[in-house]
Please model this.
Amino acid sequence: MVVPQVQEVAAVAKLQVKPMSYLQTTQDVYKQAALLPDVGLCCTTTPIWQLPGLKIPIKMQQMNYGCGSTVNPRDLVNEPSVLYVGVGGGMELLQFSYFSRNKGAIIGVDVVDEMLLACKENLETAEKENSWFKSDFITLKKGDALSLPVENNSIDVAAQNCLFNIFKIDDLEKALSEMYRVLKPNGRLVLSDPVCETKMPAELLNDERLRALCLSGAIPLKEYIKMITDVGFGSIEIRAKRPYRILDPSHYNTSNLVYIESVEICAIKDPMPDDGPCIFTGKTAIYYGKDGFFDDHKGHSLLQNQPLSICDKTAEALSCLERKDIFISETTYFYDGGGCC
Ligand SMILES: C[S@@+](CC[C@H](N)C(=O)[O-])C[C@H]1O[C@@H](n2cnc3c(N)ncnc32)[C@H](O)[C@@H]1O
Model:
């Protein structure tokens, strides 16, 4: 019999006590949420999109683990190819395929086998309940958001809902770079995620389960936008920002209230402008002077008393003019298309 040396035994013991990574904890949380729907696990104030002729199976609704919506008809003209990372119960995959009704048009990626299986079963139910829908519109793939099993420059619309907030900063940077890599030029990353302007107490920040439940990984919106533009996205649209959760001292390990919001963002793989990204946070300019219009000779024409959506760079440039006949609204976090840039 070969007796293990003391050093070997110590090495094995060390291996056994190695703490699980937060990514593994996350997978365990979503394995459970796949085996038994956890209604309200994430959940949002936005109602579930209803579209003519679309029936969302009950179990898919119970497994709505998103914190907003990433499905916006404006992004989905001409039956785009769609990549959806972190499939959950498949509800948004079904909603995306409403707009891209071709075999293999949509790819769904998830790292948890049980979630992929639950999603597949839900899509089979959806096929029975929706005459227009074929489950082969969607290809489900096992894979990791941090290393996507998808070709470079091959996707029109890449989406994730309530997954990236779970990642620590280095991994978030990887996940965003991966989305950038797979998108075609001018392709769109659409995402919904919690953000938090309050400093997250260390006890919560280091709680892997809370992080996996999308409660303690949220970062401030400005930091999130900077990370998105740092990987190269030249245009950003903030489409919504809503109250999401309160972490309070009687339920969580915190001495102060932590207020969390959820945002919906579209980041476009446009070339980066020389003077930095165009970030639309829902600001509007209105010219109310004596002339018919105001022209800044930088491509922005403001018609008398007509609102024009402007990006934050243009808002800054117009305010610097200190004119008494241009009104610039506060950020509304509701950008709905059109405008400058
Ligand atoms: C909060 S749920 C969101 C599900 C879905 N997006 C929705 O809105 O209902 C997170 C999803 O990401 C998956 N997931 C977790 N870690 C992942 C990773 N590293 N790569 C890909 N998917 C992951 C989980 O299995 C789960 O399906």
About this structure: The radius of gyration is 23 Å. The pocket of S-adenosylmethionine is lined by residues 23, 26-27, 30, 42, 64-66, 85-89, 92, 109-112, 115, 144-146, 161-163, 214 (CB under 6 Å). The first helix runs from residue 6 to 17. The chain is about 30% helix and 25% strand.
